[in-house]
Amino acid sequence: QPLPAFPDGFLWGTSTSAFQIEGGVGADGRGPSVWDAFTRQPGRIKDGSDAAVATDHYHRWREDVALLRELGAGAYRFSVSWPRVLPTGTGEVNAPGLDFYDALVDALCEAGIEPVPTLFHWDTPLPLEERGGWLERDTAQRFADYADAVAARLADRVTRWITLNEPAEVTLLGYGLGDHAPGKRLLFDALPAAHHQLLGHGLAARALRARGVRSIGVANSHGPVWPVSSSEEDTGAAALYDLLTNRLFAEPLLLGRYPDEGLAAMLPGPVADDLGLIGDSLDWYGVNYYQPTLVGAPDPRTQADEFAGIGIPAELPFGIREIPGRERTGFGWAVVPEGLRETLRTLRERYGERLPPVLVTENGCAYPEPVADAGRIAFHDAHLRELHAALEEGADVRGYFVWSLLDNFEWAEGYEQRFGLVHVDYATGERTPKDSFRWLRDALRAQRPPGRE
Ligand SMILES: O=C(O)[C@H](O)[C@@H](O)[C@H](O)[C@H](O)CO
Q1: What is the ipTM of this complex?
Q2: Which PROSITE patterns match (predicted)?
Q3: Do 97 and 85 contact (CB within 8 A), yes or no?
């Protein structure tokens, strides 16, 4: 059954991030990032690997642009590596670093593919992290300076910009639980990292606008939070989880305020002034959706000690449960296509007119099959049908980006989890389009019958 027709001009794309695909970590003046250091700490990466080479995109990017052209993607979301452009995070721009993205943007434009850069996808320059990273207010200003340097070079050809990717994951996994870089386990003392990232977004958005940019978004992770039962304890725990993972990173941007005064009071600096800069700073809203979360009151007998590959400490005031009766990806994630529609409906119900047009900036799944990836085809087919249904019920969604174009370095999982439409042989760098790549290529062709370009 072919996919239903999406609106004219709907943006079809795929997403990647610099640290996960580029490699070339020491090439042409790139400085180290917090993730380079993190991968060298024993036991941090499940398969003991690092991203020194990854998919070697830094040297093979022309091949990847050719794959994007063959796929028929109208857009490509990639991230710019801050330490490649500013090796110490501040000061002198590393021209060869910017030259790389300049050439990539040119090739994409030449291929008729819209470049959609993310300025920060987790690879904080190490010298800044050693000075406290996002726990430090100064990092927000450094980020804006970096954004300005990139826009100065690329804003003549790049229209749509993403400042931050998933500040929630950086805060909760990097500073709260320590499963991701920088590996700090501060629990609720990680909250300043949330505020400083959002402030960094506000300052960067202002710098981008000063460079003439008029289309700015943030890619936030979102997913429904389902309480295990209607008991007060379980609904309370689910509400707290929803507050920390969904609302904390949406409401400052969309409503110009934090969802909870007590929480806001824990944040350092002139928060009210900062919110003036953070609120109303978006032209569109990016949603990364993977799966819902089933949450209840802490109960060591029934709660999972791991969720999405992340260890859940027993001392947290909520427990995560496995969603029963669902297909699971190779990564053990529940396949819940209707969760995408529910996420879009919840955003609309909560934020109404304050919610600008949405782009689904990431949606995808990990499966081990090198080429015959029927699970991935079924995953995207089902999610796109739910997305279409969401459009029919009034969601203003303007595009959809598959995570990911290539198999790549899946953070603390290393190379064990493959999310790509294209298989990568990490020993040789060889790329092999999977069945899902061909399925999506044909589906995109069908969306653009002749004469409807
Ligand atoms: O959403 C994220 O966590 C990141 O943006 C990606 O970098 C991940 O690799 C992907 O989502 C799969 O987990």
Answers
A1: 0.95
A2: GLYCOSYL_HYDROL_F1_2 (PS00653)
A3: yes
Q: How many CB atoms lie within 10 A of CB 301?
A: 5
CA 372 vs CA 3, 36, 409: distances in Å? 20, 32, 21
Q: What are the pLDDT digits (tens) for 23-70?
A: 999 999 999 999 999 999 999 999 999 999 999 999 999 999 999 999
Cα 440 to its chain centre, rounded Å, is 21
**pTM of the complete model:** 0.97
Pairwise CA distance, residues 128 & 171, whole Å:
16
Tens of pLDDT, residues 357-387? 999 999 999 999 999 999 999 999 999 999 9
Please calculate the CA angle 433-335-407 and round it to the nearest 5 degrees. Answer: 25
Distance (angstroms) between ligand 1 centre and the Cα of 358 equals 18
Note the pLDDT of residue 311: 74
Residue 453 burial (CB count, 10 A): 7
Q: Is the pLDDT of residue 453 over 60?
A: no
- φ/ψ of 316, rounded to 5, equals -75, 150
Structure-block tokens of residue 98? 């910017």
Cβ-contact 11, 105 below 8 angstroms? no
Comparing CA positions, the residue from 152, 156, 147, 258 lying closest to residue 206 is: 147
CA pair distance 349, 69, nearest whole angstrom: 37
User: Token pair for residue 209?
Assistant: 């606008």
Strands 285-289 and 11-15: unpaired
Beta bridge partners of 294: 226, 321
Tell me the three state secondary structure of residue 1: coil
Q: How far is CA 283 from CA 198, 200, 286, in A?
A: 15, 17, 10
For 392-409, b where at least 16 C-beta lie within 10 A, e where not — what string? eeebebbbbbbbbbbbbb
Taking phi first (over 0 means left), then psi (-120 to 50 degrees means alpha), and beta for anything else, what does residue 136 get?
Answer: beta
Please work out whether the CB of residue 413 comes within 6 Å of at least one atom of ligand 1: no
At 30, list the tokens. 């790139």
**Cβ of residue 410 lying under 6 Å from some atom of ligand 1:** yes
Report whether residue 419 contacts ligand 1, using a CB cutoff of 6 Å. Answer: yes
Q: In Å, how far are 104, 116, 363 from 157, measured between CA atoms?
A: 11, 10, 26
- CA–centroid distance, 75 to ligand 1, in Å, is 18
pLDDT of residue 450: 66
Per the CB < 8 A criterion, the answer to whether 343 and 335 are in contact is no
Q: For a pocket test of ligand 1, which of 288, 407, 424 has the largest count of ligand atoms closer than 8 A to its C-beta?
A: 288
